[in-house]
């Protein structure tokens, strides 16, 4: 792994690094919006502007229904963005979609900060979330198609790092305005989101189109030129770029051009589609919204009001730090092991939180352990199951269906994000800490599913992954993976000169 990684890394160029990471600004937008909203819900100025006044308590407050609607309905926008992203990328390419999502985000933020009514703010959030849906599909598929296989995991998983950066910034800004009783506080917190789409729009002018997307349009010469911009001078001078494009086209054969939605359930594509859909389901239903979106509200209503804005900052920082080892592990020990350990520890911390939190009388040590369980859950989640679904959605599908599969998986993810965000306020009000039993149980299901059904894909060129799904998967012994000569050529050209990878036996056919 180390030699393969070093060989691939030696082929990188400043433009490749820039193209891989600059547009993750979009994920900072997603992380910031998610993190800032949790604080805005508890912001005195926001509540005074939009929440009804309760004479009995002399305070402004939302009931569970209005909290749920404000949290869940924006996912309608994300659903639209995710589902539209696939066909849009196929038709006009990643670069044009980046421009479109920037416009959507700016319009949504303007509507939000000028809101005088609850409904107007809700509409603004829905429009912002259209851009979030486009980001989720566009960034991951673009990265997967331009980066060498040896560190594709590191690059795609890094989106969680940028999500965590956005969340950390948001929690800090929320803390700064947590006592603001005027509109300025929540408007500043919301208005900061202008920065991210403007940066995306600027950066897009400098990145090339995906060579694989250009191939799908039969623009082979442009595909070569695009790859030449992304690869090292040595690769350009020796003709490796032309050879890699030719090998990709030969390997893809009938999958060069984009396929229909119906092809998602044909042949081996059905297995790939089900895997992507399953992991996007687990991403939302193993407790992340409970910890990320509702932790401030949960702290305020369960005996930790004094630290309700401080603890989320600590949790965000720890989650941010946890992404760094995840970026290494996903390409060293692999996707499977990283996910297995992530789900195992998620379940453990949620069960611990539920068990201790449900006690009628708790000691100071037990209270501290409950808070620590929140934080340690965030670390476990960010070390695998937070980001690897994006990676699997970008690399498991074949080239003809990559955008559509990722779009379908992301849209399915949004449906469950809607469900969880809608029901969690009711769950918190009715079962309190026992929420941990529910989400911890789903984490165990995800653990078992991963062991029995997910093959390892680390270090594989995208075209090689087609071979992995051409044979049945057995979790108890190495798979024999038949690679064509073209697939071997692609692997060598991407910096991988080994014949055995990821615990799989390789044969050439």
Automatic annotation (TrEMBL):
Coiled coil: none
Membrane topology type: Multi-pass membrane protein
Ranges annotated as spanning the membrane: 69-89, 96-113, 119-137, 149-172, 184-207, 308-328, 340-358, 370-391, 411-428, 435-454
UniProt-listed PROSITE patterns: MFS, SUGAR_TRANSPORT_1
The protein's name in its UniProt record: Major facilitator superfamily (MFS) profile domain-containing protein
Family label: Belongs to the major facilitator superfamily. Sugar transporter (TC 2.A.1.1) family.
Domain of life of the native organism: Eukaryota
Species: Sporothrix stenoceras
């Amino acid at each position: 792994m180390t030699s393969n990684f070093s060989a691939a890394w030696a082929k990188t160029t400043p433009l490749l690094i820039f193209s891989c990471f600059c547009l993750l600004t979009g994920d900072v937008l997603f992380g910031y919006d998610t993190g800032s909203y949790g604080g805005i819900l508890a912001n005195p100025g926001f509540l005074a502007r939009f929440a009804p006044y309760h004479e009995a308590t002399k305070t402004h407050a939302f009931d569970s229904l209005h909290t749920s609607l404000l949290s869940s309905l924006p996912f309608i926008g994300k659903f639209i963005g995710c589902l539209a992203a696939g066909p849009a990328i196929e038709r006009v390419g990643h670069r044009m979609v980046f421009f479109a999502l920037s416009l959507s985000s700016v319009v949504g933020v303007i509507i939000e900060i000028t809101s005088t009514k609850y409904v107007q703010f809700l509409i603004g959030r829905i429009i912002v979330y259209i851009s979030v849906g486009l980001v989720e599909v566009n960034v991951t598929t673009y990265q997967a198609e331009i980066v060498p296989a040896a560190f594709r995991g590191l690059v795609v998983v890094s989106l969680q790092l940028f999500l965590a950066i956005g969340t950390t910034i948001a929690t800090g800004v929320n803390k700064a305005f947590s006592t603001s009783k005027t509109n300025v506080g929540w408007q500043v917190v919301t208005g900061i989101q202008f920065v991210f789409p403007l940066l995306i729009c600027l950066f897009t002018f400098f990145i090339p189109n995906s060579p694989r997307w250009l191939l799908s349009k039969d623009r082979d010469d442009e595909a070569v030129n695009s790859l030449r911009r992304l690869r090292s001078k040595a690769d350009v001078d020796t003709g490796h770029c032309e050879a890699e494009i030719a090998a990709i086209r030969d390997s893809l054969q009938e999958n060069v051009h984009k396929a229909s939605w119906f092809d998602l359930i044909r042949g081996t594509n059905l297995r790939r589609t089900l895997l992507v859909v399953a992991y996007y389901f687990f991403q939302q239903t193993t407790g992340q919204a409970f910890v990320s979106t509702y932790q401030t509200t949960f702290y305020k209503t369960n005996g930790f009001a004094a630290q309700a804005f401080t603890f989320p900052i600590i949790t965000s920082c720890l989650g941010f730090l946890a992404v760094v080892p995840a970026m290494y592990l996903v390409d060293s020990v692999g996707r499977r092991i990283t996910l297995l350990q992530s789900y195992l520890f998620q379940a453990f911390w949620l069960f611990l939180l539920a068990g201790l939190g449900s006690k009628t009388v708790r000691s100071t040590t037990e209270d501290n352990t409950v808070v620590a369980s929140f934080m340690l859950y965030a670390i476990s989640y960010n070390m695998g199951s937070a980001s690897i679904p994006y990676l699997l959605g970008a690399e498991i599908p074949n080239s003809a269906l990559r955008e559509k599969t990722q779009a379908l998986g992301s849209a399915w993810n949004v449906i469950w994000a809607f469900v969880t965000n809608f029901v969690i306020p009711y769950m918190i009000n009715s079962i309190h800490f026992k929420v941990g039993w529910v989400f911890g149980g789903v984490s165990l299901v995800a653990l078992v599913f991963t062991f029995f059904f997910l093959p390892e894909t680390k270090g594989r060129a995208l075209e090689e992954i087609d071979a992995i799904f051409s044979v049945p998967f057995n979790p108890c012994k190495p798979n024999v993976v038949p690679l064509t000569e073209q697939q071997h050529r692609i692997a060598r050209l991407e910096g991988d000169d080994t014949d055995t990878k990821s615990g799989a036996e390789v044969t050439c056919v």
